[in-house]
Design a protein that fits this description.
With about 280 residues, the chain is an alpha/beta fold. It has helices at about 20-25, 50-55, 80-85, 90-95, 100-110, 120-130, 135-145, 150-160, 175-185, 210-225, 245-250, 260-265, and strands at about 5-10, 30-35, 35-45, 60-65, 75-80, 165-175, 190-195, 200-205, 235, 250-255, 265-270. A 7-stranded mixed beta sheet has the order 8-7-6-5-9-10-11, with helices on both faces. Helix 4 (about 90-95) packs antiparallel against helix 5 (about 100-110). The chain is elongated and about 65 Å long.
Length: about 280
């Protein structure tokens, strides 16, 4: 099996990178695919550590991709929401409206780094701190603070044009995933439901918590409903809660991710936007 090495940059790529990257990757030819990306053909994945070091020094992203593979060979893109499809952690911003952002964000960060092993416990602790908050805070977070990650709409347009279905699966909340599903024309969305009574958050989540196991199951189940093997899914995420679904997929993308996720993914985007997915093929 032969591989191509795809190099990407936020800034226009200088051709000064061609010779050193060709030598480091032990490839046979450099093709500049656009101003921000190049492809090195017949690259050696065993050179990953050297490529990683070079790219880290020059603020470049890289990925080894099977030669000849196309985006259209996949059938499903599965995305995390918080800090992946969107730039914020919704629960942290909700907590800001009751003066608890620091406390909640500390738990969020520890959970995403994998330091809190039980995601259910982590989420339950954070949601409990929101008890009594006016539910209008959710609307304010969506309207005032939620922004799509760079390249999100371009990426979604590209995968849809290639015939792929889209699944947003989140350890966050349906209030946000359902709005994003409608706004972006996503095919499927699955997340946690916050209990609201008399217009206020109760500090509880209704039903099954969407943890790492549930995310992986949603990927498998959606693939099954579409008649796809999980190897034809692409999974994109940033935190430890995404690792199991990423392991199920044929291609995994760590997006501006925690180190534990970056190390486990097929490809890591530390600099470019979500549309970097399109340049891999």
């Amino acid at each position: 099996m032969t591989h191509n090495l795809v190099i990407q940059s936020l800034a226009p790529l200088s051709d000064a990178h061609h010779k050193p990257l060709l030598a480091l990757s032990r490839g046979t030819r450099v093709v500049q695919t656009d101003d921000h990306a190049l492809r090195i053909e017949n690259a050696n994945p065993a050179q990953r550590l050297d490529i990683d070091a070079y790219c880290g020094t020059h603020a470049l992203d890289f990925g080894f991709v099977e030669a000849g593979r196309t985006l259209g060979e996949f059938g499903l893109v599965v995305m995390d929401m918080d800090s992946t499809l969107i730039t914020i952690e919704c629960i942290d911003e909700i907590a800001d409206f009751c003066g608890l952002k620091t406390q909640v964000a500390e738990i969020t960060e520890a959970s995403m780094r994998g330091e809190i092993r039980d995601f259910n416990e982590s989420l339950t602790r954070r949601v409990a701190l929101l008890a009594g908050l006016d539910a209008q805070a959710l609307e304010r977070v969506y309207d005032e603070r939620l922004q799509l990650s760079p390249g999100a709409e371009t990426m979604l347009a590209g995968v849809k044009a290639a015939g792929l279905k889209t699944l947003l699966v989140s350890g966050g909340f349906t209030f946000f995933t359902e709005r994003l599903k409608a706004r972006l024309g996503l095919d499927y969305a699955h997340a946690n439901t916050l209990e609201i009574v008399d217009g206020k958050l109760t500090g509880k989540v209704l039903g099954e918590i969407v943890n790492a196991d549930v995310k992986a199951r949603m990927l498998r189940d959606t693939c099954a409903s579409l008649g796809l093997e999980p190897s034809r899914a692409i999974a994109m995420g940033d935190g430890s809660n995404d690792l199991k679904m990423m392991a199920e997929a044929g291609l995994s993308v760590a997006f501006h991710a925690k180190p534990v996720v970056r190390d486990a993914a097929t490809v890591a985007f530390d600099h470019v936007g979500l549309d970097g997915l399109l340049r891999l093929f």
